[in-house]
Amino acid sequence: MSTRISVLALLSAVLLSCGSNTVYSEFKDIDSEGWNRDSICAFTIHIDDTAATYQMRLYIRHRETYPYQNIWLFVSDSSYETMPKDTLLFYLANDRGEWLGQGKNGIVEMPMLYQEQRLFADTGDYTIYIQQAMRDTFLKGIENVGFELLKYGQE
């Protein structure tokens, strides 16, 4: 019996330590009328460890009625003085029209790796900006946009 408790305690510690590398995680709700092309989702993160390597993930939660296979996004970062935008193509469905993410109650969540080994030169606040870059002025079917920052550890 004590072996079973030890194994459960060890498993719990491992699971908790795996989750402890999340530095920041937040979702922004999108207006029910649609995601306006001029609307920008801003996520402000605080960095206090410049020796660590970070992973950045983006998330799109959309309804199953979303009319497209993909979504184009502009992503920029306040750490760059001229704020260059990355243009990202985010696939939400395969060629057969099957959603790629995990779904429940008509909502599908799709994660996307944005930057895998990001280093920050200075401590402080950084803001990540995400904007839809589709041709639609109001992009229908998007429920939430999320951003997550995970710490890998020391270099």
Protein architecture, described:
- The longest helix is centred in the first third of the chain and has 18 residues, at 2-19.
- Strand 5 and strand 6 form a beta hairpin.
- The protein has a 5-stranded antiparallel beta sheet, with no helix packed on it. It has a 4-stranded antiparallel beta sheet with strand order 3-9-5-6, with no helix packed on it. A two-stranded antiparallel ribbon has the order 2-10.
- Mean pLDDT is 86; it is low at 1-17.
- The protein has 155 residues and is mainly β.
- It has one helix spanning 2-19, and strands at 22-29, 35-36, 40-47, 52-63, 70-77, 86-91, 102-104, 107-118, 124-132, 138-139, 142-154.
Helix/strand layout:
Layout lengths: L1 H18 L2 E8 L5 E2 L3 E8 L4 E12 L6 E8 L8 E6 L10 E3 L2 E12 L5 E9 L5 E2 L2 E13 L1
Antiparallel strand pairs: 1-11, 2-10, 3-9, 4-8, 4-11, 5-6, 5-9, 7-8
